Amino acid sequence: MSKRILVAAHNHPSLHPGGTEIFAHDLFRAYQRAGHEALFLGATNQIHREARPGTSFQGVGPAGDELLLWSGHFDHFFMSQIDLYGVVPDITELLREFRPDVVHIHHLLLLGAEFPHIIRRTLPHCQIVMTLHDYYPICHHDGLMVRTGTKELCHQASPDRCHGCFKDIPLDRFVLRERHLKALLSTVDHFVSPSAFLKDRFVQWGLDEDAVSVIPNGIPVRKAGAQRELLEGGRPIFGYFGNLNPWKGVTVLLDAARQLLADGHEFELRVHGGAPFQSKTFVDEVDRRFAETAECVQPRGPYRREDIGDLVAAVDCTIVPSVWWENAPLVIQEAQVQGRPVIASNIGGMAEMIEHGVNGLTVPPNDARALAAAMRSILEQPNLLRQFAENARKPDDIDTTARRYLKRIEPALLPA
């Protein structure tokens, strides 16, 4: 039976092509292909769009099934929507007009942690599903679960530990933040995590284990483009794909490349991605490393989502050197679906996607020496690439993922 499904995220991939926004939008289209009436709602602010007087909503795309919610007044600490007289009434009106059977939430940023409560108050029988993509409700440090001072990985959040990272914020506010978010999230009917690791973190934080299912993300099926044969031309080509920021490990990768270059190894490293909204200090640091490794490293700059398949197909091995607990990196899926080996950090969801010595190699995060050693093993034993390629673990296509979500949702929609 056809359903009305509202898919909500904290931005739109045409404005900010992050993994969460891309997956949410892909799933929205998959719901439509499955015969359901779906509407996409992406929240944004002044970074990407200016406000338009008279309404909280803006159109995006020609079909009329995609909207932007302009949310310029937002409390990032409590993840709260504070424009109670503007945004909240408009959200309520949208819910009443569209009357979704299901609201599928992909993030609370800009939408507000109150969003599930607004849905429940407006549409008492609507099914509310939320996909957990990162650790924002748990961690005020941009959902990274990385210590602000030492940059070490944080294994468990608590008001005391959070206050240690943000000493200017009183400890009792972290207590209130946790209670506030848990109370509002209690309105969600069911949670989905793309990795077992992320699920475990939220269960440890306090979510009911039975309320969280694990459904790996899927990716769209694309027409196969020209694919480079592994080691075509003899010199291995490594590739990095994603934004350049301190948590993606690009400086670690460039340090590893510098070590290999100093040892006389011949290879090519293509770094695809820009550095939006990054500090001048960080950008200068990356540029300096690019200059030091110019002999083998090519900074290729930002790329379009629709080009990622061809870009991945043009390298022999993809490197994902993130230094935080990545949940389900899209680039690993893109590489594996094309039978491309991956070198990734051995933490978070990355460690579930890449098994060391089977479909790629894993290394400790933030360890340029270990990363260089993994890359060196590929350079010195090129047959490893073919071995790993044969063992690639291809992800589900996005339509299969949509069916898995719908199978999980449908029983709750049936009358008692």
UniProtKB/TrEMBL annotation:
Its EC number is 2.4.1.11. InterPro entries: Glyco_trans_1, Glyco_trans_4-like_N, Glycosyltransferase_grp1. Residues 228-394 form the Glycosyl transferase family domain. GO terms for molecular function: alpha-1,4-glucan glucosyltransferase (UDP-glucose donor) activity. Residues 17-221 form the Glycosyltransferase subfamily 4-like N-terminal domain. Keywords: Glycosyltransferase, Transferase. It is an enzyme of class 2 (transferase). The keyword Cytoplasm does not apply. PANTHER family: SULFOQUINOVOSYL TRANSFERASE SQD2. This is Glycogen synthase. It comes from Rhizobium tibeticum.
